[in-house]
Write a structure and sequence with these properties.
The structure holds two protein chains of two kinds.
Chain A (H helix, E strand, L loop, with lengths): L2 H34 L5 H5 L2 E2 L4 E2 L2 H32 L3 H16 L2 H15 L6 H25 L3 H9 L4 H12 L1 H17 L2 H4 L21 H10 L4 H37 L1
Antiparallel strand pairs in A: 1-2
Helix pairs in contact in A: 1-12, 3-6, 3-9, 4-6, 5-6, 6-9, 7-8, 9-12, 11-12
Chain B lengths: L7 E10 L2 E11 L4 E5 L6 H7 L10 E9 L2 E2 L7 H7 E4 L10 H5 L1 H6 L7 H11 L3 H4 L12 H13 L5 E5 L7 H14 L4 E5 L3 H7 L2 E6 L2 E7 H6 L4 H10 L1
Parallel strand pairs in B: 3-8, 3-9, 6-7, 7-8
Antiparallel strand pairs in B: 1-2, 1-4, 4-5, 9-10
Classes of the chains: A mainly alpha, B alpha/beta.
Amino acid sequence: MTRVQKEKIFSGALAFLTLCACSILAFILFAVFSRGFAALSWEFISSEARDFGAKGGILYQIFGTLLLMFASTTICLPIALGTALYQTEYLKSSFWKKAFKIFMASLNGMPTIVLGLAGYLFFGKFLGIGVSWLTGALILAAMIIPTAHAAILEAIETLPEHYQETGISLGLKPNQRIIAVVIPHSVYGIITGTLLGLARAGGETAAIMFTATAFSGVTLPKSITEPVATLQTHILVLAQEATNPIALANAWGSASVLLGIVFFLILGAKSIRNRLTWELER
Amino acid sequence: MSETQFDIKIQNASLHYGSAPVFNKITHYFVPKAVTSVIGPSGTGKSTLLRTFNRMNDRIEGFRIDGDVWVGGQNIYEENIDVYALRQSVGIVFQKPCVFPKSIYENVIFGIKRLQPEKKKDFADLAEQALRKVSLWDEVQDRLSEPGLSLSQGQQQRLVLARTLISKPDILLMDEPTSSLDPRSARAIENLILSLKENHTIILVTHNIGQAKRVSDETIFVCNGDICEAGDAQKLLEDPCCQETRDYLNQGR
């Protein structure tokens, strides 16, 4: 076998493996949207669930999911931004920088059910907030901090060095430099981190299932201590009703909507990231 | 000239990156209101020396200095020094002009906008004065709101100089400010350096021997972790005493 032939086989094998990875996504998208399409209608999206989800729509589930996503991101963003700024602008010791990275990686790798349990014990029981959307938002915020933090950190660390040097050379103090140089020039990274955090919060089920959501009988929460319905738990419970074809169709329809929301946010994050790269390369 | 009259003095100072010494126990008094050029082979620490005078090396992990560096009458490596005030009084211009993606006007007032917000009403006048000082006012007065990045490289370097001068620094550090410019723009910067030395003490790092001759009053030649030779620019560049200086200058001829 010649070297050229070996190279062709090797690159062909790699292309096949790449195709396998892509086909997983393609299969999921096809499976969800082909089955969910039949259930999708304006009525499905704009009406509330009836008969434990076997009839009606998913209006309050969409609302609950969006509420948890935006509340958790609102809580998470200042923490993620603050920690990234502290790490890059104030923390001098390389030991503590490394330790902090390990801490964030550990938090990122924490099984979400464990985070949900620990969060429920602390927020729900210890602080007395109970099963509520606020407990869920706080748990999700803790869960998405590493995602948002990593995206923001990357944006700050890839900021052109001469921007930082210029800020320093003009005599700006770290807080002035953060406001004048760092934040304005890493704003796309901050937005990317926010959107990725939103998307991750939108996809999470385990951490909020028993801490923030109720399957039926809830509409709009009247206070911060009430639970909400979410698409994630709605899909899970309907999928367990596998013998009821309408319930199953509604589960696929709900999954299509959830996937649509998450995809929209990820694509948004990617397009902003591309814009950031373009800005930096100018 | 007595010792106290010098704006910048480096006394018995050793500069290190980690365990690697860059300079070993160097001493030099820089002539005030004059241009001192620093020349020497690449990698000998010219920029490191320059950045010592406004403590720009502080953010480099492992950088260490032993000895005294006096700027404007204070030992700048003492613990209680206000390093931010020091950097305002010791301006620096880098090799490549760093213009922010903002308007020309916003670039000029970038520093004072944050450092002296109480002077907000005077910003326009201060910007005009700074732009006139660097001979850029006539070229940009009608387009101050246009992006700073729309200017040519030479104009950008003068814009950066205006941004530095608007804070009224006493000392100017210049790290190869013309190396990325065409000859015409480089000459414009050289003329500026000559006009600025009346009110500023200037230290210029350059690889361009011709430039050093044209603008410097004094030259120091650094090599092997030491200041090998220092003195009157014309004399040093025409008839150096030290063999290393002679070898370096001959390479450029």
